[in-house]
Amino acid sequence: MPGHGPPADPILCSFPSPQVLVESLAAFVIKVQREAVEKRGKFTLAISGGSLPKNLNALIGKPGVKWDLWQVFYADERAVPLDHPDSNHNLCTTELFSKVPIPQSNIHPIDASLLDDLEELSDSYEKELIHEFAQKDSARFPVFDLILLGMGPDGHCASLFPGHELLSEKDRWVAYIEDSPKPPPQRITLTYPVINHASYVAFVAAGESKAEVLKTVLDDPQQGLPSSRVRPVHPGHLYWFVDDAASALTQYPRSELKV
């Protein structure tokens, strides 16, 4: 279980096309799931939105995916109804969960009855995490088996944006943001202490539009972009799944993916 120790260096895996990236990501998710199930009989996962849910389509129909043992949370969520087009839960349901045999009780969306009170909404979601993790784990923060993140053109991840006060949050598991620079402005998000206690964190970024910011995140982390601050503590692992277009500018060394 991750504890105190040096943060993990990123492992950069670059693939010749988005299609190869997606297939490799699916194999990686299945590997992490297998490890988790062997250890504890379940697989805890947090997913962000954007293009990530569609990138997980390659898991549909794959042998070895034990959907009944998944426990799925959201790395961030917009404060909108669950059927709203901006909802990460709606996106994940449309792109993935409606197409696979995962029990509804294993998916943990926000409580949409609390949208008018962001503090209550984030507290409620933190209680969902406490119910899943705190009763069984002695760690101060939950230890997800895997957190999957995208990266915005400004280097943001989950709903952690450049220059925002949430970047320095040290205690809360789930925090809210009322002034997201990207609409919709009201959201909740997992904090760095939670993200950086995961056993595995994997970013997914594709396309030449990500090349400049990926170079900054990997080659110049002292700039402090939000995605640079994701550094799981030992023995956690940090992977970047990118295509060659996204990695064209970075000098960071590539690694072969082992699954």
TrEMBL record:
Q: Which InterPro entries match?
A: 6-phosphogluconolactonase_DevB, 6PGL, Glc/Gal-6P_isomerase, NagB/RpiA_transferase-like
* UniProt cross-references to SUPFAM superfamilies, sorted A to Z: NagB/RpiA/CoA transferase-like (SSF100950)
> In which pathway does this enzyme or protein participate?
Carbohydrate degradation; pentose phosphate pathway; D-ribulose 5-phosphate from D-glucose 6-phosphate (oxidative stage): step 2/3
* Keyword RNA-binding among record annotations: no
Catalytic activity reported: 6-phospho-D-glucono-1,5-lactone + H2O = 6-phospho-D-gluconate + H(+)
- Which superkingdom is the protein from? Eukaryota
Q: Any keyword Zinc?
A: no
Q: Which family is this protein grouped under?
A: Belongs to the glucosamine/galactosamine-6-phosphate isomerase family. 6-phosphogluconolactonase subfamily.
Question: What name has this protein been given in UniProt?
Answer: 6-phosphogluconolactonase
